[in-house]
Amino acid sequence: MKRLAAAFLAVAAAAYVLVAWLNAPGFYDGLCPPVDYRFTSPPPQATVRTPPASGHATFKVINGQVQPVTAFTDDGQFQLTTVPGAFNPPPGGAALNIDIKPVTDFPAHDQYTFVTNVYLVTANSSIAKEARVALLYSTVLPAPSNIYLAQPNGSWAPVLSNVNATACNIIDARTSSLGLFAAGYPAGATRPSHNPGAGGQTLPLIVAGAILIVLLAGIPLALVRRRTGEAGRPKKPPRRRRT
């Protein structure tokens, strides 16, 4: 019986891994909490009405090289990271300043549907190497498939360098330019009506419940085994009293 319980547990664990491998990214983070996304223009289904935050960061220039950059908004919905020397040193020996802010005035995006805010990223120096941008996205809208970039007076284009949908509703990509960023998908593309990546995955809960049932089923078996073992032990003879 003990071997049977162990076999059930192994099968349940293997089934979870197999289904996770066959599913799209987001399966493993099925237990992530729903994202309380702060929209500049909240959709009707959004419950959060807090405005999104901006971000500012200053980085030193040491020995002619700008230090690694990690800049983000105060609510964590947008992040920019780089390796050392990714920005050219600002003129006059000044420190590097980066500003990130959500904006509502930006070029039209008829070709793309955005599911995040549009963020404007500016710096007092030009970028020399690729930077990584990461955007948090909401669980009440379809998940994005790409990050899009535009200049304030230009047109939008997809960021094609290493786009990844990571755990818990974050999409990231590498870019060699700063400007306006937003996450979304091509207009007219078929997408789920909502994003199940966080808090909406039913299958992981079912598998976890099956594993729990197997574990609980093993408890009575262990008790029976223990009682059987105790019943089969020879009883010690009573000690003789000294007279």
What can you see in these coordinates?
The chain is built from 2 helices and 14 strands. The chain has helices at residues 2-22, 202-232, and strands at residues 55-59, 61-62, 65-66, 70-72, 78-81, 96-103, 112-114, 118-123, 131-136, 146-150, 157-158, 161-166, 170-175, 180-186. Strands 1, 6, 7, 8, 10, 11 and 14 form a 7-stranded antiparallel beta sheet that branches. A 5-stranded antiparallel beta sheet has the order 4-5-9-13-12, with no helix packed on it. Helix 1 runs antiparallel to helix 2 (202-232). The longest helix has 31 residues, at 202-232. It is elongated. 26% of the residues are buried.
Q: H/E series, N to C?
A: HEEEEEEEEEEEEEEH
Note the quaternary state here.
single chain
Uncertain segments: 17-29, 196-203
Question: Which percent range fits the helix content?
Answer: 10-25%
> Mind summarizing the main beta sheet?
7 strands, antiparallel
CATH architecture assignment name of the largest domain: Sandwich
- Distance between the amino and carboxyl termini: 50 Å
Which fold does the CATH topology of the largest domain refer to?
Chondroitinase Ac, Chain A, domain 3
Sheet-strand content, in percent, reads: 25-35%
- The helix tally amounts to 2
User: What's the shape?
Assistant: elongated
Structural class: alpha+beta
- The gyration radius over C-alpha positions equals 28 Å
Counted beta strands: 14
Number of domains: 2
